[in-house]
Amino acid sequence: MAEDEPARDCPLCPRLKDFRDQNARDYPDYFNAPVPSFGAGNPKLLIVGLAPGLHGANRTGRPFTGDYAGDLLYTTLLKLGLARGTYDRRIDDGLELVGCRIVNSVHCVPPQNKPLPIEINTCNQFLKASIESHREAKALLALGAIAHDAALKALGEKKSAHKFGHGARHQLKDGRVLIDSYHCSRYNTNTGVLTPAMFEAAVGAAKAAAGL
Question: I want to staple 82 with a disulfide (CB 3.0 to 4.6 A). Which of 35, 53, 65, 77 is the partner?
Answer without folding.
Answer: 77
